[in-house]
């Protein structure tokens, strides 16, 4: 306790770490959140973003990608005092609404016991809230249209391209370089050249394409408080509600299926066959326009270890652990990186080098775990959600959760509605599987014994 | 048959592929072998190597790294007419000679049935043989001291740094770029930026360091016709014979164990404890000198997919699949890449684009399999070889192999002494495991029944 008093002041700023010049590469959700946290800890922050300031760039109505905010993201936002502001414009989603091929729907609530839910938030809006909050700090400086071209992590020197037309280069230095530059991180690229850096990137054979269910008479065309899913084995479609009462629809399927759809006629046939109830909602004309407007996008999973380089650089968010989007945890995990890192930074007698090393130690296995879970959930969402065995397990989990809310938290709930480390969520699920197996064995053997006894008695 | 006559001439050159300008990056074993093959197929080859010509560079006696040449490498050398020349100076190794902590040795032959063996060859010598053979082709040009700095694979353009002091740059173009530039391949680095390129690099926690058992009175100090192994659970040491009657010794152990040995005294204590019989052979003075001369080296495993980029570039050898060195298959697998690729190139009506794509299709799973096997064998060599169960299995395998040489080829033998695809070697082993489990079950139940019967009779 006395240690804490010695090194951390009343505002939670760790006095054992002198103010650093911190360069954050990437001004997306994780980068702008990290900037706020560093600033609150008394450091001098320079945030470099390769795009222009999204707050002044053009908004395409109803097309902004939306995200499912859950517990981990909320907690990280609460820490910088922004949770309420974000939730005030978010749309709660209380469960999955499943659409079958005939257009029949059924609902599976995420948490029938305590009514926790996911929140659909617009990526652009959330980013704007974070950037606006950062602007209030005198020790944060934004540098838009600055693309990192090269860096010497050991020396803390960077070179940015800051005007695309004239290839103008700008140099900068920092005590700490923070890579929040996403799946194709230039900071990680630099780190990957050091010996002992483990890394993997794995593309999946499914691509995705965004469509839109527009508002009709200024109303949602489907119940808004659900994450809508059309599970179809090999492929699937999901839809999340937007503030403007449209839905952003994401169609995921193997690239070879995308390639097989070459004409508007083939597209409509395909949609009428698999997603018949969605056709009138999207509208045939808009469907054709959106589908053929752009190519399906790749999806990939990225793991690496370590997340830091000496006491000079660290990776946060997708730069450290990009995942396929099917657990809705990409943003939440990235924001939780901030929660963890800044809690480590506040530990007594911490140095920046020790903080970076500790972050790697504590975070790698959880980051790998959520990457694996996201891959697993892709299978679950497009396939298992339709299966009888999945529904049975879901019911069993829900029942046990209701009776033992502190002991039996189903996997999805522990991931989405708690801050339990991801690797522990998996371990917890494995423990549950073991218990259920044993119960099944006892029930079955009792039944056999009972029938046997009946047979002998008669 | 008529197809073959139409497109492949009497020398096996595929007439459906016009002569290409081929740039091979890397003049090591795989690069120089690939150059020979391309040249024999009528293409114009430019081989770029970042080091100087090893044939004119200084040789350090007894320190050249040696390699275990086996069936796949031999076959690839035979195809370019160099097998006999290479084998004439190679040293056959008929089995493993195991050294226990007390210095007692025992022998496990690789192939007691048909006497196949591994051949210890010097990397430098083999590379020289290949480069000399290439020099005879008017359509091969060597460019030493050319380091690839950047490449545009799509356009087939490359930029080389060809004088280190003056940073002189040279530009070149090619129809096909062949990356034979090893584990840290610059060509792969370029390829990895394309969407859909799967990649992983995994460092192991063990490093290695090379020592030397010099010749004594111009004689080998240990029996030369074995691969000597000192298995010690967490760490191990191996030694391969050299032409000059020395042995190159490779010490592998966790970095933390290396770090724990800081003084000559600690080193000698460590060696007397674990490798007592090797100390007088190496000599205390040389041991201390070699051990502290350089830092232990990292070992890593690299997998990727695909191995090609459009009809413009391909990766062969370590650039495509670097592995830990514990199956002695790194070079053999790289050379086998050439065997496979050039056999595809000779198929009727082949185009270069189709050949590259086919190579990826046929090679990826086998390359991944041998990377996995190499990792597995690391455990086997330093741990299992000492175990009773390993020796039993080895005996059982040998016995079955002797009686059914066409049906029961043990894993190590199928990898080292056949050209069976690596993934099939693993599948074959799994099939053998299943059979042995069943046999064990039958034997055990028969024994139980027999004892039970005896008990009832008495």
UniProtKB/TrEMBL annotation, chains A, B:
Gene3D superfamilies: FAD/NAD(P)-binding domain (3.50.50.60). Keywords: FAD, Flavoprotein, Membrane, Mitochondrion, Monooxygenase, NADP, Oxidoreductase, Pyridine nucleotide biosynthesis, Transmembrane, Transmembrane helix. Its cofactor is FAD. It is a multi-pass membrane protein. It is found in: Mitochondrion; Membrane. Its EC number is 1.14.13.9. GO terms for molecular function: FAD binding; kynurenine 3-monooxygenase activity. It catalyses: L-kynurenine + NADPH + O2 + H(+) = 3-hydroxy-L-kynurenine + NADP(+) + H2O. GO terms for cellular component: mitochondrial outer membrane. Pfam families: FAD_binding_3. One of its GO terms (biological process) is quinolinate biosynthetic process. Pathway: Cofactor biosynthesis; NAD(+) biosynthesis; quinolinate from L-kynurenine: step 1/3. Residues 21-369 form the FAD-binding domain. It is an enzyme of class 1 (oxidoreductase). The chain crosses the membrane at residues 20-39, 439-457. The keyword Iron-sulfur does not apply. The keyword Nucleotide-binding does not apply. Its main location: mitochondrion. Catalyzes the hydroxylation of L-kynurenine (L-Kyn) to form 3-hydroxy-L-kynurenine (L-3OHKyn). Required for synthesis of quinolinic acid. This is Kynurenine 3-monooxygenase. It comes from Musca domestica. The lineage of its organism: Eukaryota, Metazoa, Ecdysozoa, Arthropoda, Hexapoda. The gene is 101890555.
